[in-house]
Amino acid sequence: MPDLNGMALFAAVVRSQGFSQAARDTGLPKSTISRKVAQLEEQLGVRLLQRDTRNLSLTQVGALFYQHCESIVNEVEAAKAVIEHTQNDVSGSLRIAIPVSFSQELIAKLCSGFMRLYPNVQLDVQFTDSDVGLVGEGFDVAIKYGPLQSSDLVARLLFERQPILVASPGYLKTKGIPATPAELGDHSGILLGTSRSAPIWPLGKGSRKTMVSFNRKVRVNSSIMVKQLALDDFGIAMLSHSVCKKELASGALVPILPEWPMEPFKVYGVYSSRRQLATNISVFLDFFAKRIGSQESLLGMMG
């Protein structure tokens, strides 16, 4: 029997008229979708799509197969709707892994709101920077920073944040203001990350992107502490704009090299494909993505 997940992703590629748009529509990495469709073609023993550097088109058999895929996907969604409509509420246990650098106060508020809305769900929330194995360690969902490594796990994009380099006027008065990325190498940096994080910042976007090294003054996995150390004149820090918005407005922190805007960093909800239809996972990620989008207190990006 053909893989239903592969059929659904194949249908998404056709509807979106390409892998890139399908990745944006589904929140899955483009590489994952491409691999699943290739596996489906191999399983069926036919080519469903004609690909070249510019165009993507259906083969004759692909066009016929797509009609059946769309029908099956619609039936699956209808079946899900029936189940969800007949359930009185969402229930069961849900074990979640969340990076240490997230605001624990914010996560506590989100979990409180979720449990009030779904009182029959039992949450087990663990803050960890370990690369947890979802199935092996019993986690249902892991919140992860991108970019993600290719795997058979399903990833849903939850939100994006804009990183920015900042420092205090006091530090800049003593050490000077770096005028180019290369000059960051002469400055002290406050690194937000784990013991494996290197003192490197990715500046710029696209073809103008560059990786710059700096002298690590201190490394911590709490963006609250990173911001405070920057305010206390200990060096330059990379934080999300939303974390230091008030300090930037008041002048307590100053943007560094604003002419080198960086790629937004992305946060995903990752779960095993074995549980992709579990209602409690779906409603938790929906709730998380919706509520987090209106919060300004989510704390910074990992180094």
Compact summary:
The protein is α/β, with parallel strands linked by helices and 303 residues long. It has helices at 4-16, 19-26, 30-44, 60-86, 104-117, 169-175, 223-231, 245-250, 279-292, and strands at residues 49-51, 56-58, 91-98, 120-127, 141-145, 154-161, 163-167, 188-192, 200-203, 210-213, 215-220, 236-240, 254-256, 265-271. α1 packs across α2, α1 (4-16) packs across α3 and α1 (4-16) crosses α4.
**Binned strand content:** 15-25%
Give the count of helical stretches: 9
Helical fraction equals 25-40%
Distance between the termini: 44 Å
Q: Which stretches are poorly predicted, pLDDT < 50 over at least 5 residues?
A: 296-303
GO biological process, one term: DNA-templated transcription
Protein name: LysR family transcriptional regulator
Domain HTH lysR-type: 2-59
Keywords: DNA-binding, Transcription, Transcription regulation
Can you tell me about this structure?
This protein is an alpha/beta fold. The chain has nine helices and 14 strands. Strands 4-3-5-14-6 form a five-stranded mixed beta sheet, covered by helices on one side. Helix 1 packs across helix 2 (19-26). The longest helix is centred in the first third of the chain and has 27 residues, at 60-86. It is globular, with a radius of gyration of 22 Å. The model is unreliable at 296-303 (pLDDT under 50).
